[in-house]
Specification:
26 strands
Amino acid sequence: MPLILKVEKNPLSQSGICSGARMNAPQTCQSGVISLIPQARRVLERCGVFQEARVIPLRLTSQRQCISASVLALGVALGGGLARSPAAPVDQPPTKPTTVTPDCTAGGCHAGVLAHKFLHGPTAGKKCDACHEYDEPREHRFRAVSESDLCARCHPMEHRNVIHKPVRDGQCSACHDPHGSEHRLMLIADPAKGLCISCHIHEESPAEHVHGPVAAGACILCHEPHSSWQPSLLVKSASDLCADCHAEVQQAGAGLHVHAAMEQGCTSCHNPHASLHPYMLHKATDDLCADCHGETMQAIGSAAVVHGAVHEAEGCTQCHSPHSSRLPNLQKHAEPETCLACHDKPLATETGRVLTNMALLLHESPDHHGPIREGSCSSCHEPHAAEHANLLVQTYPPEFYAPFEIDRYALCFTCHMAEMATSKSGMGLTRFRDGDVNLHWLHVNQEKGRTCRACHEVHASKRPFHVRESVPFGSSGWLLEINFEARPDGGFCAPGCHVERAYARGEAEEPAASRDPKGGSQ
């Protein structure tokens, strides 16, 4: 057994000071046990004091103390104080050879190099002279040869434009044991548990979401260990590399609309190793999107009304595909399907008002407003935030009674002609007329003008022309029935706001083929 130093608490493993096999530092600090520096091991092997060992508890706080502890242990071992049991017989150290020695493992000198699961070819064949060349056999002195030159004799490799630092510095033994190892390729540590992170410790910092290859220690699945033509020693271009496992994203990229961030590469949004956020995003979804879509995020931050979906856990990706889509604006689904994914139940707003179950309303009400028929909720509603109630893109009077002004009805006049309300004559403008008298004009141009909502549903209705069954009236919300009935030459209503009245256009009903079968504005 080698003389070892047991570290009760090893701060060096956290700082990375003692993390590799170096000639001037202990071989490993990461397991909590520090082995002697290589020179000390060789001396003790030759002196035959590796038969038994004691464990010395230490608390190391600096690299200097770490190295000094090994040197101290070497001195203690050579002094015979702790390296062997008091009762053990004292073995004479082997005599230093003065001639060329064909087998360096004989005589108890370097037998330890054979005690590995995987052996270097020359070591297994006991051909030490394949790597070690005598300079002066009588003094058992060998020629100094650089690691990189020595290893390249048998292991020539193409040096591409990006070279791993140990390779560039000629330090093959930073990763490989020159004699043997318990790991494949004679690596000095388990690649799945400690080899790469001995230098790249920051890549395995605490994170909730870890990339599969990182979690499995399969670094070489993405990185070349020696050199590469790609940045960061990648085995191929980043986009092609990601597509090897994430083919569904590459296939999605064939869509008509591709997220501009895709052109910048996957790592513009995703951390390739680990992250605190789902899907290994660099930031929370909204914060990440804000890096490019700052104008939209600024509008959301300053708007009077913000869409509730914006603050949901999924954020932007609740409605938008992060990679590509066959729909404009990277929508996941067409309107109104996207909208009805949430509006398929009553929803409470921040003010306590409850929004209608829109999916149920549209299902039960066959007469749909034009934008609904065209699948364009965003014709009337802003998808993110707005200055008007209900995320409306323009003003729309919320009251039952309101004086008529063009600007007050800006939303309606985005599609409908303003003359429907400003012209007393209705001929050629509207079917809601009594002879030539425009009944829209009559209703809105009063001291207590009726607004659009007094008679019409804005989304859908069971009656023609989106006419309502009833309308909430007053602060109590009393449902004022309208009782509208369409007739061949006009219509009839018996609402709570006036006596029963009928109107007639003074013309025969238009042929069925010329009418909008789904209803529409009168």
